[in-house]
Amino acid sequence: MRVWTGSDVAVVGHSAVVGGEPLVRRARRWLRDVVERAAPWVEIGDVDLLASEVLTNAVRHTASREPGRSVVVAVAWEAGVVRVSVTDEGWAKSRPQVRTASEVAEMGRGLALLDALAAGWGHEVGPGLGCPVTVWFEMKEVRA
Fold this sequence. Notes:
The protein has a single domain (about 1-140), classed as Histidine kinase-like ATPase, C-terminal domain (Heat Shock Protein 90). Helix 1 packs antiparallel against helix 2 and helix 2 packs antiparallel against helix 3 (about 110-115). By secondary structure, it is of the alpha+beta class. The protein is globular. The protein has helices spanning about 25-40, 45-60, 110-115; strands spanning about 1-5, 10-15, 70-80, 80-85, 120-125, 135-140. It starts with a strand and ends with a strand. Strand 5 and strand 6 (about 135-140) form a beta hairpin. Strands 1, 2, 3, 4, 5 and 6 form a six-stranded antiparallel beta sheet that branches. Keywords: ATP-binding, Kinase, Nucleotide-binding, Serine/threonine-protein kinase, Transferase. InterPro entries: Anti-sigma-factor_SerPK, HATPase_C_sf, HATPase_dom. This is ATP-binding protein. GO terms for molecular function: ATP binding.
């Protein structure tokens, strides 16, 4: 799989803002630009929605929410497959898993969306104190 390197790997600090934009919005904008260049066949609305869910989880449930902390967003691709990865700073109270949300719940549907829209998804727990987690999802080219 080819991996974007250098300026194509985004490290987005939670407490940092550019033009008043919060982390998730900045990361999504960067991701849209990269994916549109790497895989113009991808349904960018689906990528944007799934990235928003994964980024929001990283910020909401881990140490990435704290000032000065960050998430790392990366894109890899090969013929017909693009993979988006989001790595947090760790210290989550639980690991990513699909839950059944009640009809009135305001949260709890993000990973179900990954199940429904992505060709595949998963997570990897990193080493070290706090155990950073990378959540990834893949989108495949669909030929008509």
